[in-house]
Design a protein that fits this description.
With about 350 residues, the protein is of the alpha+beta class. The chain has three domains: about 170 residues, no CATH class; about 70 residues, no CATH class; about 80 residues, no CATH class. The chain contains nine helices and nine strands. Strands 5-6-7-8-9 form a five-stranded antiparallel beta sheet, covered by helices on one side. Strands 1-2-3-4 form a four-stranded antiparallel beta sheet, covered by helices on one side. The longest helix is centred in the middle third of the chain and has 36 residues.
């Protein structure tokens, strides 16, 4: 979930929290302060974004790690409450702890509802929890929470009820997304069986702009497969622009177009750490190569990408590229992250590397 929507969710929770029964007059917090605190607290887990500056794959290695952990959530809530409860008093600290825990929990659950993956049980487990229900930026979710927060501020007398209504709408929408996800997976299994594909791993990943649009993914060990599916009316945009290529790819089940890719083999233990870290992150890693020597013998470029994000051959985040010399040895590698100034190339000791088949 994007940070704006995290903040809106935290603000709605803060408004409802401010209306809770009980508590002394000294421990009470005004609705406005509670909403502001909730919005701030709900974004604290993403402080781990600073890891992007630690190494080329720092973001992939550490984002949604220990700051997104259910195991460590009580500790983060305690630290947050200690910072917010400036005046002494057990009751005031307890109140701030409850708001901190609720806001932080909202961030973790919202992120887990997507497809990026969240280490909810770090540091005890490196399991990435991803429900594949909601796209990272969902117009309905952001819109419903925006209306709830604005309404709660404009109509203060009914602020708690309006905030509760917004949270209820979010819960219902998430439930609808879960049902649609289940339906997409069922249709995908039927199509794979009809094509004779025995997949060891499958997924239905939510796509913008609505719950009707999904990216179906599968892997059978040698190949990976992708098929953009829509349950609605397919788009028919003119031209070859980014929007047209993105929206026109979605097809109803009867017209589903399944593309096949070469599944990337796991890297050897002596491979550069950047490559190994990328594979630890990638869900459906695929590979191809370009250049005069992509079949071997001359300079070549190898490119890995996670099929979950690389819906287009020319675009998509989280792509890793390596250059080979004329002897087929990898000598530098970089993560293509669209930063200003181009990729940050990392020299590596010459390593013999078998170039995969050329990209068509």
């Amino acid at each position: 979930m994007d940070n704006l929507t995290h903040g809106l969710l935290g603000a709605a929770i803060g408004r409802l929290w401010a209306a809770r029964p009980g508590g002394s007059a000294d421990s009470r917090v005004s609705p406005g302060v509670a909403m502001a605190a909730g919005a701030l607290l709900a974004n604290l887990p993403d402080l781990d974004l600073v890891t992007a500056f630690l190494s080329p794959t720092g973001y992939l290695d550490h984002h949604r790690g220990i700051t997104h952990s259910l195991v460590l959530l009580p500790a983060w809530a305690l630290l947050s409450a200690a910072a917010l409860a400036r005046r002494p008093g057990r009751e005031r600290f307890r109140d701030w702890f409850s708001l901190s825990a609720l806001a932080l929990l909202s961030h973790l659950l919202a992120d887990a509802s997507g497809s990026y993956g969240t280490f909810l049980f770090a540091p005890l487990s490196d399991l990435r929890v991803r429900l594949d229900w909601l796209f990272i930026v969902d117009p309905f979710v952001s819109g419903a929470l925006s209306l709830a927060v604005i309404g709660a501020l404009a109509f203060r007398r009914f602020g708690a009820r309006i905030a509760a209504g917004g949270l209820a709408a979010l819960a219902l929408y998430t439930g609808a997304a879960a049902l649609r996800h289940r339906q997409a997976l069922a249709r995908w299994r039927e199509r794979l069986a009809a094509d004779g594909i025995v997949a060891g791993k499958i997924a239905a990943v939510p796509q913008a702009p609505s719950l009707n649009d999904w990216l179906l993914l599968a892997e059978d060990g040698r190949h990976s497969f992708a098929a953009p599916l829509t349950f609605g009316t397919p788009w028919r945009l003119e031209g070859d622009g980014l929007a047209a290529r993105y929206l026109n790819r979605f097809r109803p089940l009867a017209e589903l177009r399944v593309r096949r890719f070469a599944t990337a083999a796991p890297p050897a233990a002596q491979s550069p750490s950047t490559l190994r870290n990328f594979f630890a992150f990638a869900r459906f890693p695929v590979v191809g190569s370009e250049g005069a020597g992509c079949a071997g013998g001359a300079d070549a470029e190898i490119r890995w990408r996670d099929l979950q994000y690389g819906w287009d051959d020319r675009f998509g985040p989280f792509q890793l590229v390596a250059d080979l010399d004329r002897q087929g040895r990898m000598y530098r590698i970089a993560l293509l992250d669209n930063r200003p100034g181009g990729p940050r190339w990392i020299p590596v000791p010459p390593l013999k590397f078998q170039a995969p088949a050329c990209v068509a």
